[in-house]
User: Fold this.
Amino acid sequence: MPAPPSPSLTRVDTSVRPQIASLTRMLREGSRLEDPARMLAQYGAIFGMGEGPRRDMLLTVSRRGLPEGKYKITRFLSEAQRLHPDNPDLPNPWRDWERLRVYEGGFIGEVIALEEPQLIVGLDLTDDPIVGDRLKGLRSCMVTPNFDEGAATNWALQFSRDERRWGVEDLERWMISGNLLGTATRNLVTRRSVDELNRRLEYQFDEVARVQRSLLPDAKPRIPGYSIGTSYLTSQKAGGDYYDFYHFGEHEWGVMIADVSGHGAAAATVMAMLHAMLPEPGDPDATPQRIVPKINRRLVRSLHEGMFVTALFVHLNAQTGELSYVRCGHPPARVRRGKSGAVEPLVGVPLLPLGIVEEYEVEAASARLDPGDSLVLYTDGITEEPRTLPDGSRDMFGVERLDAALRECTGEPTCVVESIHHALHEHTGEMKREDDQTLVVLRREPGA
Assistant:
């Protein structure tokens, strides 16, 4: 509800000019329009307000994108067809541009070649080859160019049977109003083009995201004696995180998690490349020590400068719980011990991310999952998720909060994922993410 007027203010009564109220109403309504043809009609009606005899014919011309001397007639409007948003028969040159005929020469070609506003009297266009049949009997013309990037691209030609219909004051007024209207129309056309481009990009991102998700495991593998939980959340529709499982022996399983630098479509493309490089099921050489150098060499040759991949490859002997792992610039996995609830990092030997240097010596580290223990792999989008403090600084989620969330859960994979997500939301107070966030949880069941 608007505030009551202050008694100390004295306002001039503007009702003596009813056009002001009409203008306000029309401008407000016009600001809601999204179609350039309707906006032109709306504001054309506004700028056409005035006293005295009106024009008998309005002709609009454009030479946008055409060779020198060529032009298209975009509108022929008689007084009865004046620009008005409620006129359903108004031509729409934006929609019909390709169907409009291209002209050259004649009266129109002569006046638009000057690229200046003009008042012309004593007209007799009976014999004009382009418009003579439609402009017979008209005696004066007011020509106003609309400029775009310094060039007179569009024109309004107003005709009257009265030679004294317009003066230089009218020409000045129409130059200003016409060019303001042209600028507004161009801005709306640009906005519509941007909106259409955004819709197309949105569709492409949807497709990339769909393809990307199809590369993730269809279902969690069934490893006797183990339970598995995963979570994959992207900052955009397409992300650069990836995880996978592979089986290469009776009790031998591979688990990997990776994070492509950056995010979005480019990172998703690299993720798809990484998927194609992983070993086939049953490959006896699928240990981290063997596959990591191969993947690194291919990435070095494929990635653009500045791109890289952090990754963690884990080899699990499901029968014994023995782990062998290689950490390529990736955050250390965590192990939540089932008996004590303590959380330990699997630091191992830190190696460079993949795709940076071709010579890559791999040194694996080892650990063990006892019954009840949970292995948690994650990407740095979790530990580096920030919140903004009152002083403007940024406080990252960090490994301490991650470990606290692990200690507060049972270690069961679903509980691990939910506990971390809850802690993240408590930290940021938001559902959106600055980076992709992926979790893979592998628990050796008690008694296994």
Residues 324 and 431 are 35 Å apart (CA to CA).
